[in-house]
Design brief:
Elements: H1 2-8, H2 13-45, H3 51-84, H4 88-101, H5 107-115, H6 118-122, E1 126-133, E2 136-144, E3 155-157, H7 161-169, E4 173-174, H8 175-183, H9 189-197, E5 200-208, E6 211-219, H10 229-259, H11 270-287, E7 291-299, H12 301-308, H13 310-327, E8 333-338, E9 341-347, H14 351-371, E10 377-385, H15 392-408, E11 414-416, H16 417-421, H17 431-448, H18 455-469, H19 474-486, H20 496-499, H21 507-514, H22 516-524, H23 534-538, H24 560-574, H25 587-596, H26 604-614
Helix pairs in contact: 2-3, 4-5, 4-10, 8-9, 12-13, 13-14, 18-19, 18-24, 18-26
């Protein structure tokens, strides 16, 4: 019987076990109380059949089952904690999301709130939300577990048999069922390829009034497991409950977009471009993602416009808009920035991916203009968040500078903001530019985490003091100062719920924290002017005894600059408040803690040098606490 129920999935055995165990445990607690109450009643009244005894028994028959139901809830909570462990808060967040999302009209915020808890709640490697567009259902938003690559773009056409099946039956479709449909010839190879390449294990429809408005694509379950009926059922229920909200948000977004469409080119407007950049910075800061922007300027367009008139110029602008649309994905945002300038927001694209897109646009424009016999080309500047700029102003300035570089270098070319920055060096002639870039990047983490606001700047000041005491040259101090300012840049890839968690971290969450030096290196590696900072940033959490991370280096094998940074970083962390420990150490207590940990966490000589720096000063007591 057990095998039959399990094999044909008549019921979810885990759910049955949870409910049965909850009632059984509550019953074991209530039954003795009921028997004790009966015994006490009989002892006092001396009879089972007296009117008072019968009334009391009837009352107990109703009271104790209510007590059992009351006890079941906390017991069920304990059982869930035992079954799901650290995943339980994420499951509760997922189950509670429909009630919170009912009044949200911003599709970006809605998708973010919907997808954020799913990977950890269900142990899904990745999850994507596909929404309806002109050409079909396209993945607009995604999320994934830490260390898992973001899911590739997914797309199912409107006439897709798979979409028709989901729309008709409104039931989740597993990878196994999709494979069976393929064998029976019901699905095409392109649909099967999309499912396989996207590592999809389940497709969950989101329907509103019998209409398919979205699809949740669930990636493979971690640890080679399989999703239980409870997991998929919960996702189906949530999708059903918020499908109407999704539809309303899409209609609202379409209305807003229509109000921001340039009449001539059909692209979005200058104002919408700025709005989307703000939204992408907010979204990527929260999820730890990246994006890029392109600035496109037409070469010699003014001369053409003057020679052939504005009507001919308008036709060219329409052609250029078509070239840009044809060269980007449906999820990217093309805009007319002004006159003969265009801007594109490339969601989820690295600087290298953005360069490829920019080259494709440039070649498409060149080819199309050649076919029309028009001597117009394009110059393009590429910038990526946060490497090129942490704020919108810094990012757009970097893209504009790269565009200017393309113009100055001969036109009809693509330039990267990182290539422009790579010409900077730590010398007197470029010190101001590189410091501005460093401060803009460092502001990213400080802006994200108000608990560490100013931490980067204070850490760099302490590190510079140590370096000066060791007799560092001006160039080495500049390099160390930049590394100290940027040492926590990788934390923009750490989810907020981990970074701001008030309690102790579990092992899976510690992985995210331990990865932030590597994330920082990955973000900064494209800026050649900062290449000397990378070893310092990567190894500033190594311990002198070899028990640190990420490489487990020990003693002199750890770069000296990284050992200096470790001392400065720890001191400021100890004398600053943190969400997981609001009480901070005094200046003297922090120095004592450094001394206690010398030889294990820190280089003893550097601890001595740092401690000696404070002796001539009467600083009183400062605020602080240990940093993760």
């Amino acid at each position: 019987m057990f095998h039959s129920i399990r094999s044909i999935k008549l019921s979810d055995l885990k759910e049955c076990a949870r409910e049965g165990l909850a009632y059984l445990s509550a019953g074991f607690l209530v039954a003795p109380l009921y028997l004790a109450a009966l015994c006490i009643q009989h002892y006092i009244l001396g009879s089972w059949t007296s009117p008072l005894s019968i009334v009391l028994i009837v009352i107990m028959i109703f009271v104790f089952p209510l007590l059992l139901i009351k006890l079941r809830r906390p017991i069920r909570r304990r059982i869930d904690e035992a079954l799901y462990g650290w995943r339980l808060p994420y499951r509760e967040m997922m189950f509670n999301s429909p009630g919170k999302l009912n009044n949200i009209l911003d599709i970006n915020e809605l998708a973010r709130e919907l997808l954020e808890p799913v990977p950890r709640a269900l142990m899904a490697s990745q999850v994507s939300l596909l929404l309806l567009e002109d050409e079909g259902f396209v993945s607009k938003f995604s999320n994934q577990l830490l260390g898992v690559q973001p899911p590739p773009p997914l797309k199912f056409g409107k006439d897709s048999k798979l979409v028709n099946w989901l729309s008709q039956y409104q039931m989740p479709l597993s990878a196994e069922e999709i494979s069976k449909h393929r064998q029976s010839g019901r699905l095409g190879d392109d649909e099967i390829s999309t499912v396989r390449n996207g590592h999809i294990q389940f497709l969950v429809p989101m329907c509103s009034k019998q209409k398919l408005v979205g699809i949740i694509a669930l990636g493979l379950k971690q640890a080679r497991g399989s999703y239980c009926k409870d997991d998929i059922g919960a996702l189906v229920k949530i999708g059903s409950e918020i499908s109407r909200t999704i539809e309303n948000a899409q209609q609202y977004a379409a209305a807003i977009e229509k109000a921001h469409v340039d009449e001539l080119t059909g692209l979005l407007t200058h104002g919408f471009f700025h709005r989307r950049v703000d939204e992408e910075i907010s979204r990527c800061s929260r999820f730890g993602n990246i994006f890029s922007v392109l600035f496109i300027d037409l070469d010699l367009f003014k001369s053409y416009n003057d020679a052939f008139g504005h009507i001919a110029g308008d036709r060219i602008l329409k052609e250029i808009a078509g070239c840009i649309r044809a060269s980007i994905r449906s999820i990217d945002i093309p805009c007319r920035y002004g006159g003969d300038e265009f801007g594109v927001v490339l969601t989820g694209s690295s600087i290298d991916d953005a360069y490829d897109v920019a080259e494709r646009i440039r070649k498409t424009i060149e080819s199309r203009m050649d076919s029309l016999g028009v001597a117009i080309t394009s110059s393009i500047g590429v910038a990526s968040w946060p490497t090129s700029g942490a704020t919108k102003e810094a990012l757009l300035l970097a893209a504009d500078s790269a565009l200017y570089w393309s113009k100055r270098s001969g036109r009809n070319r693509v330039s990267l903001a990182s290539s422009v920055l790579s010409t900077l060096r730590f010398d007197n002639s470029s010190e101001q530019e590189i410091i501005e870039a460093v401060h803009a990047l460092a502001a990213t983490v400080d802006a994200k985490d108000h608990y560490t606001y100013g931490h980067s700047k204070k850490t760099s000041e302490y590190a510079v003091r140590i370096a000066q005491e060791l007799g560092y040259s001006v160039e080495r101090i500049a390099k160390l100062k930049a590394a100290a300012m940027l040492h926590d840049i990788g934390k923009i890839r750490v989810p907020d719920n981990i970074l701001f968690k008030p309690g102790p971290l579990i092992s899976d969450e510690w992985v995210a924290i331990r990865e932030h030096p590597k994330f920082g290196v990955a973000i900064l590696k494209h800026i050649k002017g900062l290449s000397g900072c990378l070893p310092i940033i990567q190894h500033h959490h190594e311990h002198f005894d070899g028990n640190g991370y990420p490489a487990g280096l020990a003693g002199d094998a750890i770069p000296l600059d990284a050992r200096i940074l470790a001392v400065a970083d720890a001191y400021d962390a100890m004398t600053s408040p943190r969400p997981y420990r609001p009480n901070k150490l005094t200046h003297q207590d922090a120095l004592k803690e450094l001394a206690r940990c010398k030889g294990t966490y820190f280089d003893p000589e550097l601890v001595r040098v740092f401690t000696e720096l404070w002796k001539p000063l009467d600083l009183g007591e400062l605020a602080g606490s240990y940093m993760r």
